[in-house]
Amino acid sequence: MAKLLSCVLGPRLYKIYRERDSERAPSSVPGTPTSVTNPPSSSWDTYYQPRALEKHADSILALASVFWSISYYSSPFAFFYLYRKGYLSLSKVVPLSHYAGTLLLLLAGVACLRGIGRWTNPQYRQFITILEATHRNRSAENKRQLAKYNFDFGSWPVDFHWEEPSSRKESRGGPSRWGVALLRPEPLHRGTADTFLNRVKKLPCQITSYLVAHTLGRRMLYPGSVYLLQKALMPVLLQGQARLVEECNGRRAKLQACDGNEIDTMFVDRRGRAEPQGQKLVICCEGNAGFYEVGCVSTPLEAGYSVLGWNHPGFAGSTGVPFPQNEANAMDVVVQFAIHRLGFQPQDIIIYAWSIGGFTATWAAMSYPDISAVILDASFDDLVPLALKVMPDSWRGLVTRTVRQHLNLNNAEQLCRYQGPVLLIRRTKDEIITTTVPEDIMSNRGNDLLLKLLQHRYPRVMAEEGLQAVRQWLEASSQLEEASIYSRWEVEEDWCLSVLQSYQAEHGPEFPWSVGEDMSPEGRRQLALFLAQKHLHNFEATHCTPLPAQNFQMPWHL
User: What is the mean pLDDT of the chain?
Assistant: First the structure.
């Protein structure tokens, strides 16, 4: 009966991965019955095949889950309609509650039938035995056996906890259970006395901003967190995860962040190979509808690097909701996992982000200054201009307030706190992070990210002459136009390099630099164009085109 109950309450099993010959072991899982041994090789070649009873019961429960999700999102309109029709009176609600109770009992019966179907399937019984053994004893052998299965990630045991590093337990400056430190936006009205009366006046606006951010705003900003979209993408995600595990020997792990959210990660280790780039770890930060199963991890993988991918809170196997605080908490535990469990030094870690992943990438660069490098692909400087682009102009005040208070993705501000090498990749046909049309390359917010970075690091060089020259260079949408502007100002790269090396030798590497203070306007133009070309590379593609491996290059540094 205990095993039957486990089958009723157990997670859904999606796939049993193909087993490599080198991984097969004749012994059974420690702590499990001796009859539970590794399945024959033929059973590892296909998706898990449920019996008819389990299959049909799963379909009914999945359909009920979709209907519940649709009901949840449409509930405000449904309540308004029922109220207008007079159906919310006590005499009408009681019969509806009876119908709802009957429906719940029927669904519970379907769940029991699914459990019986699982109980009659030897594959599922073996899986649930291994899962229970792993929860009792998290030995390396049990985890190795469990990693052969793909199932609902909520039942996967936690592999790494945010408090696990000893340095975190001894330090008072680390993250608390409330979260890691974020840069807070400045008040919208500086110098205004924060009196009780002012607080009361602001309260309706603050409530409206909160409701907008937690309903429409968050789902517009992170559509990948919407359950219905994840349900539609499930076959693609399962296929991508199988590729990472079976072809790349990826290892899945669950990390628990300081806010209690559980983060789904995938690690591909290339350190045992001859290629030197395998000694470097690339942590990938996905876009607002990106998942590591099918996201930007493929680019550094093809380039031969070790890779650690992770899903945003609320995406696929990760729990929670993707607000900036939760995002930073997740990134923190991912970096800690890379350092303390996977054994990479910060100097061997590269942060690579695509699109909205630039927020967590720049946060990690700001919070872990020893990280080797940061590569931002199709990212932006600040969310406010992009949010204003898609919302009515009459909502400008509400949108600005909502973003600043609840969805403040201040990439440029965080990136300027980082002292290491940075490479920005601008897509010349980007239709997402442009504020006008894709053809207007000067409206690409990647330009503003570059300008803010250079103005912070080289304020004297980026004076009026240097800023004007870089803006002209940014207007170029092809390599031919770039070369034309570069040659027009007669940029001497050897001279620029010697000036920067001399300054660094005399004053040290810490930014901002005062280089260019006593330089002629022509010299500042040359130096500004040289620095712009080293920090930004163009890629002639749209926003969602995968970045080819040959375009994945390490940032320039002296």
Answer: 90
What value does the mean pLDDT take over residues 90-102? 85
Domain topology for 160-168+203-420: Rossmann fold (3.40.50)
% of the chain exceeding 90 in pLDDT: 77
Asked if 507 is an active-site residue, the reply is yes
pTM of the predicted structure, to 2 decimals: 0.91
Cβ-proximal residues to 16 (8 Å cutoff; 6+ apart), any chain: 39, 43, 44, 47, 48, 123, 127, 148, 149, 150
Catalytic residue among 6, 306, 355, 367: 355
Pairing outcome for strands 281-285 and 13-16 = unpaired
3-state DSSP call for residue 284? Answer: strand
Residue type (1 letter), 76? P
User: Which of the following is catalytic: 98, 135, 507, 557?
Assistant: 507
> How distant, in Å, are the alpha carbons of 221, 282, 299 from that of 407?
9, 26, 28
Of the listed 259, 264, 377, 430, which one is catalytic?
Answer: 430
CA distance 47 to 242: 10
Residues contacting residue 105 through CB under 8 Å, at least 6 positions apart: none
CA distance 253 to 262: 10
What ranges do the domains of the chain cover?
1-17+46-159, 160-168+203-420, 423-557
Active site residue 367: no
